[in-house]
Amino acid sequence: MRTTILDVQKMKTRGERIPMVTAYDYTSAQIADRAGVPLLLVGDSLGMVVLGHASTVPVTLDEMLHHIRAVVRGSERALVIGDLPFLTYTSTEQAIASARRVLQEAGAQAVKLEGGVAVAPIVARLVELGVPVMGHIGFTPQSVNQIGMRVQGKHADQAAQLIMDAVALEAAGAFAIVLELVPAALAQAITSRLQIPTIGIGAGANCDGQVQVWHDLLGLYTDFKPRHAKRYAELADTIGAALASYAAEVRAGSFPTTEHSSTMDEAALRAAIERVERAAQDAA
Ligand code: KIV
To answer: Which of 27, 107, 38 is nearest to 66 (CA)?
Structure first.
């Protein structure tokens, strides 16, 4: 049985912290699911960490669907949330059409979209139609060309706006809200005002849950380390060393060995070669 948004609400009510991680493919979903992570976000961050774009802006809905399907296939217990990419929810009609594809065609159980008061009517309509929606405020990566990549809400007017955004999303029926790059004290103030959980990234320890990007968490970058990320492994180093050993063994002829090869009856091979040689002579 997959985690549901009702389970997520119960976690907040019980005061249980909620872990969430991004996943972009079958294998990573399987690993995270088996590790017991209850929420998997197929984030449009895949545009940067998987596809190599400079921002999330170029990501298309078709690309999201491709990755969401793989994550759904790789997981059994986690709630899978699919990001609606840039400019795929500019009107209620478009948001419904996009969410339909994420839930019906790709099999996610919820969508996430960026924005506060401005998108609240769209969130309300999606929720009314049965689409679980996770909000996302603070630093909203799809707006990077307007706001840059920096902490949001340090000043009173911005902080007040973020509180109003969070309240509007809750009133619209969002089941949780991501707070990205928000001062810890503001994230705490928002969290304490809401019945629904907040999931922080670069928003301090007092959110109800935390989300990290797969590549940041596992050290899959060699040089880029965002301040809000904690590396729980250095997989780029581990993978790099493994690949270097593999290449060295291939060059040295020490891989593969008989252990990695299969055998066949010598007579069968001889017969095959004779047959081919006879056919070549007949054709000459
Ligand atoms: O796309 C993403 O991975 C996200 C998280 C950083 C919250 O939106």
So the answer is: 107
Q: Which residue shows structure tokens 């729980």?
A: 232
Distance from the alpha carbon of residue 139 to the mean position of ligand 1, in angstroms: 10
Given the residues 16, 63, 76, 180, the one annotated as active site: 180
Q: Residue 200 forms beta bridges with which residues?
A: 179, 210
Angle between helices 92-100 and 120-128 (to 10 degrees): 50
Per-residue pLDDT of 73-129, as tens digits, reads 999 999 999 999 999 999 999 999 999 999 999 999 999 999 999 999 999 999 999
Ligand 1: residues with CB < 6 A are: 22, 41, 43-45, 83, 136, 178, 180, 201, 211, 213
For β-strands 133-138 and 176-180, DSSP reports them as parallel
Looking at ligand 1, which residue's alpha carbon is closest to its atom 2? 43
Interval 182-233: pLDDT, tens: 999 999 999 999 999 999 999 999 999 999 999 999 999 767 788 899 999 9
Q: Which domains does the chain have, with CATH numbers?
A: 5-217 (3.20.20.60)
Which residue in 233, 211, 204 sits closest to 220, CA to CA? 233
